């Protein structure tokens, strides 16, 4: 599927799917979501993000510790998410239809190629 590309890069990994907007400040700790699912070596798929201006630094810190997702794909883009992905060199794409997110599950395989302003994602479940 075609998406909007924001941060250049290529990633291929299993998905970790969050069916709501997440906050990196409060819902992510030491590279894990509050429910215990790890982000490292995964493509994070979510409706979007919410939260404070500290989110880019949390994303950057995760990348320095090897705990960040390989890529992030969301329905709705927020400026703080873009800043964090730029700082951490994490490929980022937006515009994933909400009805697609609802159909995805953890463990589906994803390949994301981002060449702003466009991106291409292939998902296999």
Question: Could you outline the blueprint of secondary structure elements for this entry?
Answer:
Layout: E1 2-7, E2 9-22, H1 24-27, E3 28-29, E4 32-33, E5 43-49, H2 55-64, E6 71-74, H3 79-88, E7 92-94, H4 98-103, E8 109-115, E9 118-124
Parallel strand pairs: 2-5, 5-6, 6-7
Antiparallel strand pairs: 1-7, 1-9, 2-8, 3-4, 8-9
Helix pairs in contact: 2-3
Report the radius of gyration as a whole number of Å.
13 Å
CATH homologous superfamily grouping: Phosphohistidine domain
Give the proportion of residues in helices: 10-25%
Mean pLDDT: 96
Separation, N- and C-terminal Cα atoms: 14 Å
Indicate the CATH class: Alpha Beta
- SSE run: EEHEEEHEHEHEE
What's the helix count?
4
- Quick one: overall form? globular
* CATH fold-level name: Glucose Oxidase, domain 1
Task: Describe this structure as you would to a colleague.
The chain has 125 residues and is of the alpha/beta class. The chain has a single domain (2-124), classed as Glucose Oxidase, domain 1, CATH 3.50.30. Helix content is 24%, strand content 42%. It is built from 4 helices and 9 strands; from the N terminus they run ββαβββαβαβαββ. The protein has helices at 24-27, 55-64, 79-88, 98-103, and strands at residues 2-7, 9-22, 28-29, 32-33, 43-49, 71-74, 92-94, 109-115, 118-124. It has a 7-stranded mixed beta barrel. A two-stranded antiparallel sheet has the order 3-4. Strand 6 (71-74), helix 3 and strand 7 form a beta-alpha-beta unit. The mean pLDDT is 96.
